[in-house]
Design brief:
By secondary structure, the chain is an alpha/beta fold. The chain has a domain of about 260 residues: Aspartate Aminotransferase, domain 2 (3-Layer(aba) Sandwich), CATH 3.40.640.10. About 35% of the residues lie in helices and about 10% in strands. The chain contains 17 helices and twelve strands. The protein has a seven-stranded mixed β-sheet, sandwiched between helices. Strands 10-12-11 form a three-stranded antiparallel β-sheet, with helices on one face. Helix 4 runs antiparallel to helix 12 and helix 6 runs parallel beside helix 12. The longest helix is centred in the last third of the chain and has 37 residues. The structure holds pyridoxal-5'-phosphate. The site of pyridoxal-5'-phosphate has 15 residues, from helix 7. Pyridoxal-5'-phosphate binds next to helix 7.
Length: about 500
């Protein structure tokens, strides 16, 4: 229940998202005959749709809004201000690595020969584009310490699927696909899902008190039916698996492989290479570690890197250097798992990731890692005490608190996250990882300045005070947004994805 007298009493130091009350919908603005364009007089004979398209021409075009140019411009511009974006402020969404997308990446990706390249262009005219792919592959192989790579998968989860297909093909090649994949209880939900989609049973591996793999539990569980362990390193609570060599040894001794979920590579680039610590196959999220946009900002990219033993199974085609020194696409891979994506993957993202890698250089990438870890540890140091820290193991690029202290007053992680919106920030990650009850997972990335981190820390400290003094204020947040608290379950279960004209009689 929301108390009657709750008012927004916080004093945000940041401007909150712009709220425009003039929010009539474009269909309500519509009136017959208005147009947002004017076409030149026809100078060819008119032809109607039916004679062009025959029976497939639609007689009923449905209801379309009729508005003027300024109305349509204002409509879309207004909609754009209802969103939060990394270009507006910090996005401390743990596990998602919401770093800034440098504009120089966009400038490079927009170059004519790159943006307008066609996937069916002949190899001889595509040497530049193939060169971009080859150089990116070489950089990622160097960064991960692996032997071979495919750039095809379109996201992290798609990379997991591809990687586990390689694992399966490898075991099948040795006469037995094996039955199960081990997944720690701290894993991202996509890990067990990917294993299951590839036809494996998922066995849940318990974490120890430090939030790491329990070695004796692992030894007990790995058997002749185990195809692989899917491990996130650093783990989802931001902790490096200090026994990673031992973990790899235990698996390899029983013929099983080590898959690494590389979504957290922002903590390792330039510092440690999975190929050197026993990983057989892994994916990278270019849209996390290598600064290409996420989701609505652009398609993702989840390259999969592997050791020599898995190379024959990589998706085709692969970029190769031909005898005459030119680059080409090789489709002749008899043991390949096939294609996982149309054409070659999300090429525009390769360009952006390579621009980021080359702009930073080896020392810059290492600095990026150090800054990401420093920022997370700064937040950890400043907020420990204000919020409960369930794992005190040293953390790398992200930190997981819990709502335990505030929950005593009825204020949960979701409430604190909603209240953070009033202070002008995107919420942190709520209730994940599952091994932490009431998790508040914060990942600042290296993009943020000390000043921005201080604003976030200040906001969270203020919210903790509010939780103690006026819990209703936090529990009924957000107060400054266009819409108040939404029914998130209904939004997920019964999404309304398409506008339908109101029924009039
Ligand atoms: C983001 C993430 C994934 C999934 O990546 P998508 O690109 O969103 O499919 C998998 N594992 C971890 C640990 C992640 O953080």
């Amino acid at each position: 229940m929301m108390a009657e007298d709750t008012k927004f009493i916080g004093t945000p130091k940041k401007a909150t998202t712009h709220v425009n009350q003039n929010e009539g919908l474009i269909f309500e603005k519509s009136s017959p005959g208005k147009k947002a364009y004017r076409l030149a007089e026809l100078d060819v004979p008119a032809i109607d749709a039916a004679s062009l398209l025959g029976a497939s021409a639609r007689a009923d075009l449905g209801v379309m809004p009729e508005v003027s140019e300024i109305e349509i411009i204002r409509h879309f511009t207004r909609l754009s201000t209802w969103n939060y974006a990394i270009d507006l402020g910090m996005y401390p969404l743990g596990s998602c690595t919401m770093k800034y997308n440098p504009r120089v990446n966009e400038a490079v990706a927009a170059l004519d020969g790159i943006a307008n390249a066609h996937p069916y262009q002949p190899e001889s005219l595509s040497q530049g584009c193939l060169g971009i792919m080859k150089l990116l592959q070489d950089c990622l192989i160097e960064i991960t310490g692996m032997d071979a790579i495919t750039l095809q998968p379109a996201a992290g989860a798609h990379g997991e699927f591809t990687g586990i297909l390689l694992v399966r093909a490898y075991h099948e090649g040795r006469g037995n696909a094996r039955k199960k994949i081990l997944v720690p209880d701290s894993a991202h939900g996509t890990n067990p899902a990917s294993a299951a989609v590839c036809g494996y049973q998922v066995a849940n591996l318990k974490s120890n008190a430090q939030g790491m793999v329990d070695i004796s539990e692992l030894e007990r569980m790995v058997d002749e039916d185990t195809a692989a362990l899917m491990l996130t390193n650093p783990s989802t609570i931001g902790v490096f698996e200090s026994d990673i060599h031992r973990i790899a040894e235990i698996l390899h001794a029983r013929g099983a492989l080590l898959y690494m979920d590389g979504a957290n590579m922002n903590a390792l680039v330039g510092k440690a290479r999975p190929g050197d610590f026993g990983v057989d196959v892994m994916h990278l999220n270019l849209h996390k570690t290598f600064s290409t946009p996420h989701g609505g900002g652009g398609p993702g990219s989840g390259p999969v890197a592997c050791k020599k033993i898995l190379e024959p199974f990589l998706p085709m085609p692969v970029v190769i250097t031909r005898a005459d020194g030119s680059l080409g696409l090789d489709y002749n891979h008899p043991h390949s798992v096939g294609r996982v994506r149309a054409f070659y993957g999300n090429f525009g993202m390769f360009v952006r990731a390579l621009a980021y890698i080359l702009a930073n250089g080896p020392d810059g990438l290492r600095q990026t890692t150090e800054d990401a870890v420093l920022n997370a540890n700064y937040i950890r140091a400043k907020l420990s005490g204000t919020f409960d820290l369930p794992f005190t193991t040293p953390t790398l690029h992200e930190v997981v608190f819990s709502d335990r202290l505030q929950a005593a007053n009825g204020v949960k992680t979701g409430d604190i996250a909603k209240r953070l919106i009033d202070y002008g920030f995107h919420p942190y990650t709520v209730s994940f990882p599952m091994i932490v009850h009431g998790a508040m997972m914060i990942e600042p990335t290296e993009s943020e300045s000390r000043e921005e981190l201080d604003l976030l820390i200040d906001a969270l400290q203020q919210i903790a005070r509010e939780a103690a003094e006026n819990p209703e204020l936090v529990k009924s947040a957000p107060h400054t947004t266009r819409l108040r608290r939404l029914d998130e379950t209904a939004a997920a279960r019964k999404p309304v994805l398409r506008w339908k004209p109101p029924v009039t009689d």
